[in-house]
Amino acid sequence: MVSVAFFITLVLLVGIQRIAEVIYSNRNVARMLHHGGREHAPEQMKWMTLLHVGWLVGMCLEVLLLHRPFVWPLAIVALVVFAMGQLLRYAAMRALGARWNVRIVTMPGEHVVTGGIYRYLRHPNYLGVTLELAALPLVHGAFITAIVATVLNALMLKARIDAEEAALGYDTDYQQALSDRPRMVPGLQRRHEAH
């Protein structure tokens, strides 16, 4: 039961973190829109919210109702991967500063951020989220939640990244500034993008 209490507490802390990030994001979005920013694909937000709420609730229910075991080696690896996801996301937040948000908002005519973690990846935030969604449930063996969240996230990211790149390509210098960098995995570049 100690491990379950630890896990539920960890999930609650992550939930609080997510709420704080949404508040910070909303402030940035309001400021950007006030200064001429444009929001794109707002309908995607409800699906992202459902995914993240379902992920948080789902892993807790899976551990409590299906009595998932706590396995130290798996928990340690999962925590390390989760921490890597957190580091990637906060590196993206730091690089973007007041532009960081959970929506798709562009500033027409402005240059995209190319420094910090963006020197290596176009979408470090999404890689971070992917690692978090897969890893946190595995801290206490919630395999079903990890698999379902990872698959749903992959489907959603396809639409999300397409919409974001189209918006950035239209409103900013995104193509010229970042097209030579991999989307989410360092060293992995689709061949037709490289030509």
Describe this structure in a few short sentences.
The chain has 195 residues and is mainly alpha-helical. The protein contains seven helices and two strands; from the N terminus they run H-E-H-H-E-H-H-H-H. Strands 1-2 form a two-stranded antiparallel ribbon.
Walk me through what this model shows.
The protein has helices at 2-34, 44-66, 72-96, 124-135, 143-171, 174-178, 191-194, and strands at 38-40, 104-106. By secondary structure, it is mainly alpha-helical.
Strand content: under 5%
Overall geometry: elongated
The main pleated sheet reads as: 2 strands, antiparallel
Radius of gyration, rounded? 18 Å
Number of strands: 2
Task: Record the SSE blueprint.
Blueprint: H1 2-34, E1 38-40, H2 44-66, H3 72-96, E2 104-106, H4 124-135, H5 143-171, H6 174-178, H7 191-194
Antiparallel strand pairs: 1-2
Characteristic key phrases:
about 200 residues, mainly alpha, Four Helix Bundle (Hemerythrin (Met), subunit A), two-stranded antiparallel sheet, 2 strands, disordered C terminus
